[in-house]
Amino acid sequence: MSSELTHFNAQGQAHMVDVGNKTSTKRIAIACGSIRMQANTLEKILQGNHKKGDVLGIARIAGIMASKRTADLIPLCHPLALTHVDVVLTHQTLPPIITCTVTTETLGQTGVEMEALTAVQITLLTIYDMCKAVDKGMIMENIRLLHKSGGKSGNWAAPT
């Protein structure tokens, strides 16, 4: 993998990377993150009786929508035609945590890592937004890329 920062030209100015000559390949990225909360907050979410509605369902949709809007949020990110987005939410009770894992896919000339990471962040922020009235101390953490495949640089996996 290159050690060069690709979003800067020879004069040191920020620019959008030219991917026009790159080969289209199947690109996959998997990212994850979690949100810690009070036990009673998790209980309200899981029981589905939260005042604002289905927290996990709404957060899942928010993540999918965010993945499709990544280029609108990150200035030098290419707009992509995603072929698949999967947002999976799991939980554990001790400590009370919801984990979000997102898989994004496309057939294209540039990767989908930013789309996966954006979807994780917005999914977790949506959970925070919907539950902040009962738990302002929630902590979003460990947001990271787990895996990417496709393209010239090939496969990459986070160290375990």
UniProtKB/TrEMBL annotation:
Q: Where does substrate bind?
A: 76-78, 114-115
Q: What is this protein called?
A: Cyclic pyranopterin monophosphate synthase
InterPro entries given in the database record: MoaC (IPR023045), MoaC_bact/euk (IPR047594), MoaC_sf (IPR036522), MoCo_biosynth_MoaA/MoaC (IPR050105), Mopterin_CF_biosynth-C_dom (IPR002820)
Q: Give the gene name.
A: moaC
Q: Which PANTHER family match?
A: MOLYBDOPTERIN COFACTOR SYNTHESIS PROTEIN A (PTHR22960)
From which source organism is this entry? Candidatus Thiothrix anitrata
Positions of the Molybdopterin cofactor biosynthesis C (MoaC) domain: 16-151
Q: Which HAMAP family match?
A: MoaC_B
Q: Which UniProt keywords apply?
A: Lyase, Molybdenum cofactor biosynthesis
